[in-house]
Amino acid sequence: MASSGQPRTQWLGRWGFMLAATGSAVGLGNIWKFPYITGEYGGGAFVLVYLACILAVGVPVMMTEIAFGRRGRGSPIDAIRRVVNESGRSSAWSLIGWMAMLCGFMILSFYVVVAGWSFSYLWKMLTGGLAGSSVDDMAAVFGANNANPFILGGWSTLVAVLTMVIVGKGVQEGIEKNVSWMMPGLVLMLILLIIFGVFSGGFGEAVSFLFSFNAGSLSSEGMLAALGHAFFTLSLASGAILTYGSYLPKGASIGRTTISVAIADTVVALMAGLAIFPVIFANGMNPGEGPGLIFMSLPLAFQAMPMGTLFGILFFLMLSMAALTSSISMVEATVSWLCDNKGMTRKSASWATGIVLWLISTLAMLSFNLGADWTLAGKNFFDWLDYLTSRWMMPLGGLGTVVLAGFVLKSETFRDELGLAPLPYTLWLTMVRYVSPLGILVIFADALGLYQVSFAVHWPWLLAILLVMVAVGETLSPRLRQALRSR
Ligand code: PFF
């Protein structure tokens, strides 16, 4: 049973939660994925939809998760169970916590492989292993790196070990201490890289690519990618934010903290775009290169520029640190659950988690070499982990979380925990009851191939559905008006 008798650890410093949650949010999703999907889906219009998704779905879900964590003071499973029990509801809702914990673990199993790429490129840059490579060489280097399971496995093992060492040291001594220097360091490196970008000759083009709005380039697929990415980039429904929230002191404002984390995450993603695209454009490369953008195009581009190796080193160092501050957050839920429920010390819980992680991530790593043919329905193991978590588990977990908070629990619980004034509280409630669920249902409809949504075309329908949802919801349980009158 959870050790409810003992007071729960809390972040030591005023910035502890902010830095750790931002560290979790800012990762490969911002620096590797955001630039390449922005490139694939056409730039500015995609960025705008992404920002809307962060505001309408990401922020409300994140607030809800932090509130669950702080109220329930435990891992996702224990915290959700305590909060639902407080409202006299069934413990079965803690299944959402189980799924979140599993989801964080599954993401980490493929995340360490990509983080391993980053560490290996850092090493190549440091040792001059890429000097003089041509476009074809670069693709060959990327291929060779992946083809050898010992090399690829070695790098992903290194990431897994570093993650578990940090987590094993504890919330304050391990996580908080390390994010406290890694996050400022990361921002500093990013600023230096942007300055490099300004002088690269491609800065203007990069700015107009990222910020000029061209509605014509808005595809329905791009919009779904934006919504899915909002979950991933804010580390939602994976146990990370909820568990970090369980260490948040009572007095901290959940609304303000969430908005700061969401802004920091978005600013870093945009800054990453401003660091990467100028270099790509200055060298006449294609921004829509896909997943290989920062591993193949970018090192090549850096090489062609004065002081490029130095900035290349800086770039991969920054990427590796960003990955590490995220990976530690993905196992914290599991480690905290093991400590609370199985009486394990943090060290043994971390190593036990690390061994299982290593086994699964090895299977994910093999998808790039020996196991490339082990496919099911056209997807290898790595693809399945990515697909199941981003298309299904995160949206499903997000939906469960908002439905639970918006409809199932007693209204006092979250009013209390969030401590918002009537108007912002009503706004939050509208989002978790109607707007976020609708957005998530749209992702499912697409994943099931039921309906291809294009907001540009279908927005009147979506608005009508939203209004019907509000009318039905508020007739059955009129909480919005009550919320407005609540204080
Ligand atoms: N937010 C991280 C990124 O953008 O790279 C990924 C992530 C971290 C997802 C933690 C889930 C999680 F629990």
TrEMBL record:
Q: Would you indicate the residue range of the signal peptide?
A: none
Q: Does the keyword Transmembrane helix apply?
A: yes
Topological category with respect to the lipid bilayer? Multi-pass membrane protein
Provide the GO MF annotations for this entry: symporter activity
Q: What is its main location?
A: membrane
Q: Does the keyword Nucleus apply?
A: no
Q: Where are the transmembrane segments?
A: 12-32, 44-63, 95-119, 147-167, 179-203, 223-247, 259-281, 293-319, 351-372, 392-410, 431-453, 459-477
Q: Provide the family line.
A: Belongs to the sodium:neurotransmitter symporter (SNF) (TC 2.A.22) family.
- Write the protein's name: Transporter
